[in-house]
Amino acid sequence: MADQSTPLLPSYSSHIQSSTADIPKAIRHVRPGNYLNIRRTRKAIEGTYVIDPLWEPNIPSYMLPPVRAWESRQNVVLNSEGGHIIADVWIRPGSAGAVPAERAKTRKLTLLEMRSKSEHINVKVRAGPEDPFSLTCSSKSHITVYLPRTYTGLFIALTQSGVVRFSPAVTARMTVFTEVDGTQHCLIGSDLGDEVSRNVEQGQGHGSELHLSTDKGHIMVAFLDEEPHVVVRMMWRIYATLRVSPTVCFAVNMWLLLCMLYGVYVYLFA
């Protein structure tokens, strides 16, 4: 049996080296993977996932879901038809600090997809500026996304009858370009730069992107280091906009607070 006091070494490809000291404590015992695909019919999906987008697993093709000839294989797919999704996604090694020059040259857009037919989605993405990602979330309920402070990229939000809200810190770094019939096109951060902008225009996709879509729910976006009460204040504003009674607002926010406390308990002691 392996010594539990010794952290597991990352399963990177041979040309990528990483010392244990560079790995955050929260994921030091989580082995990085790639091409994760979880689909559940009636159960929720909850977990912490560490992804190395450059690792190509040497396994038989039947171990991975088939993809069409014109599609790119996604690094993470979480699909729950009857439950919620709570995911904490780490993109290594950018989430752990500086990236070697040779690693930066081979950077690859990490593709993340979260879909829930009836329940809410809560996802945290931890990645450095050297590791761009594309996150797609689709649900009939609420969607909450936490981004790293270094996020710079496009943001497209669609909600049929809900409200799109941003934390104050995100709002300060956001530029809205269009809002038509519930669809918003925004930029979070500074300009993408000429090279990245050309790549995105040509469909090469080297810039980070957010695509959030919900039918009846609300969309909320905040940074990872913002305190939970920021999101609670955002919920108050949403319900005030919709003219919901104060009693309903209080009940919903108490439920959210209990959910967050439960999440902290599971994270620390489970």
Main attributes of the structure:
270 residues; alpha/beta; 2 domains; 8-stranded mixed sheet; 6-stranded parallel sheet; 5 helices; 14 strands; globular; transmembrane helix; DUF7330 domain-containing protein; transmembrane; DUF7330
Architecture overview:
The chain crosses the membrane at residues 244-268. It comes from Neolentinus lepideus HHB14362 ss-1. Residues 34-226 form the DUF7330 domain. Keywords: Membrane, Transmembrane, Transmembrane helix. This is DUF7330 domain-containing protein. This protein is of the alpha/beta class and 270 residues long. The chain has two domains: 20-226, no CATH class; 230-270. It has five helices and 14 strands. It has helices at 101-105, 168-172, 194-201, 228-241, 246-269, and strands at 36-40, 45-51, 76-80, 85-91, 110-116, 121-126, 133-139, 143-147, 153-159, 164-166, 174-180, 183-188, 208-214, 219-223. The strands form two sheets. An eight-stranded mixed β-sheet has the order 1-3-5-7-13-9-12-11. Strand 11 (174-180) and strand 12 form a beta hairpin. Helix 4 (228-241) packs antiparallel against helix 5. It is globular, with a radius of gyration of 19 Å. The protein starts with 35 loop residues before the first strand and ends with a helix.
How is the secondary structure organized here?
Blueprint: E1 36-40, E2 45-51, E3 76-80, E4 85-91, H1 101-105, E5 110-116, E6 121-126, E7 133-139, E8 143-147, E9 153-159, E10 164-166, H2 168-172, E11 174-180, E12 183-188, H3 194-201, E13 208-214, E14 219-223, H4 228-241, H5 246-269
Parallel strand pairs: 1-3, 2-4, 3-5, 4-6, 5-7, 6-8, 7-13, 8-14, 9-13, 10-14
Antiparallel strand pairs: 9-12, 11-12
